[in-house]
Amino acid sequence: MSPQTQPRSGGPAPMRRSPLPDPARKPVSVKRWPSKSRSKSPANKVEKLPIARKGIPLWLRSLVLLQKSTSLLLFLAVGATVTVYSWKEHVETEWSKEYKQLNTLLQEERELTATNEILKNQIANQAEKEETGLTPLTPTKNIFLEPVPYIHQEAEVTATATKKLPPSNTPLGY
Questions:
Q1: Closest CA to 86 of 75, 76, 78
Q2: Can you list the residues of the chain whose pLDDT is less than 50?
Q3: What digits encode the pLDDT tens for the residues 91-116?
Q4: 113-119, long-range: CB within 8 Å, 24+ apart, which pairs?
Q5: Is the distance from CB of 16 to CB of 22 less than 8 angstroms?
């Protein structure tokens, strides 16, 4: 709060200033600068200098062009850097997520392998018990199959294919 609007302790509150002029006060005159129409002396006349674009030296124009082109290149470089950085962060995030999933799957695979081996062992232990009704394996109860003779069919196919070709009158080479 300004000192004018703060209430004083022990006295009446000050009055605020009105935006309207006080009729008891005298108006203050303001001095103005003479306008062009009033000044007729040639000493006060200001002439505008012509601006010549060709008056700018070549080296200065080349520096301005260099500044504009490097500003554009800088903008493109910053844009490319931000793009590459955000792509790198995205790839790292995705890789980290996939790596965690791979570790989870490997852990599940180890657990499933262990569970499978436990089940195999339990089935084998149950099969050895006499109350299941299974007969124990003995070499006399094994079934042996005779192997089927191997026939080389590919040789027969090529032999029959060459026999079926009709003779041609064209030479095989030049």
A1: 78
A2: 1
A3: 999 999 999 999 999 999 999 999 99
A4: none
A5: no
Tokens of 34: 């003479």
Q: Distance between CA atoms of 29 and 49, rounded to whole angstroms?
A: 36
Would residue 133 be called left, alpha or beta, if left means φ above 0 and alpha means ψ between -120 and 50 degrees? left
pTM: 0.38
DSSP symbols for 142-161: ----PPPPP--HHHHHHHHH
Eight-class DSSP state of 9: T
Cβ burial 65-100 (10 Å sphere, 16+ → b, else e): eeeeeeeeeeeeeeeeeeeeeeeeeeeeeeeeeeee
Q: What CA dihedral angle connects 146, 149, 150 and 154, to 10 degrees?
A: -140
Amino acid at 110: R
- Residue keyed to tokens 């196919």: 157
CA distance linking residue 66 with residue 60, whole number of Å: 10
